[in-house]
Predict the 3D structure of the following.
Amino acid sequence: MVTASFDPPRYVLTVTRTGSGSGSVSSSPSGISCGTDCSEPYDSGTNVTLTASAAGGSTFANWSGCDTVSGTMCTVVMSSAKTVTATFTQGTGGVTRTGVSSGGEYACVGLSSGTVQCTGRNQFGQLGDGSWTDSSVLVSVSGITTATRVTAGDEFACALLSNGTATCWGLGESGQRGDGSFGTFALVPVAVNGLTGAVGLAAGYGHTCALLSNGTMRCWGENREGQLGNGTTANPGTAQPVTVSGISGATAFTTGAYHTCALLGNGTVRCWGRNNQGQLGNGTFTNSSTAVAVAGLTGVTAVSGGGTHTCAVVNDGTVRCWGENEFGQLGNGTTTTATTPVPVVGLSGVIDISAGWLHTCALRGDGTIQCWGQNQFGQLGNGSTTNRTTPVQVSGITGAIGVTAGWWHHSCALLGGSTVKCWGRNDWGQFGNGTTTSSLTPVTMMQ
């Protein structure tokens, strides 16, 4: 009897390197050491794990062409000849990211150098680089060198400057840039009129507010629903700052889509603006152009307004939410709207909160993030598209120091070491990772 044996077919795996930086790639099983040897044949069915290592002064950005990716590691199953690409970017010379803010279909980051960069959709100039060109990588906002905070609204963005003034760019049809005009767009930043002494800044869907060092507030922009809080409504709005009535001793605040809330020094919260879903938290559905107290809420340490809901962290590390709950964004295990605060189920150790359009994310003191609500585009980051009425953990996030739930369908986190990771919808490049590929789990924004 004659027995025949056949060697399995072999396929070549090729690694290419791209980007403004430099680095090397090694493999297990061995064979690729790219640097010098960037291709190797492997038996059919072999699982090859590639590891990227950035050179000094560079940062690894992302993989493409892999079967699976985990941080700097790329896994490929050899079933045919394959090519994968590792992207490295040039380092920032000691400059680190200090904040991230997710807008409608774009995102912006603040840097320790006082500059700002943005990525994603740019049809109204919301990237601030002087163009209308969308970008899937970060571009520098023109002329900003002293920013201490950046905030992304729906289709406009603003930066708080170190001298207590502010500047805004992008859409302005409701006066949300605060420059005294209702011009459709500004491709580069323009100064907010008459604002001084600002220590906080936040952008809503079409309005913007600032917290002043004396504990009072100023707001500008869209005011059809009374979201500027000065006792009036205006169509479309007010194009320069006005004083919020009855607010003093504020320590923090939030701008929802069409409402605003202030956290006072005594740990209570007052809200104003649209209230069609109970997002003001006072037990009614009545809009208010002046501040009303959120019912039964004390000991608050952080507050965030979303599309038509609001959430607050209290001093025991738990969370309360109120307003619309169609997709479970209140996190209490139901889809029933609440006009007063309800507790989020099973959540503890929370230090910060971010309410998006129809979902919510919480940052815990251990550096993990949990999200709940709408998940149609993976904006909860748990690898699925199933809506959740209670919190789920975002996959693979550790060491987080900030979180932002976008106005539409993506979320981002700032990690220690200046890394930003984003998840959800990425059709305009809002992840800043050089692609327009959406992801149900976090991917790394390029440096």
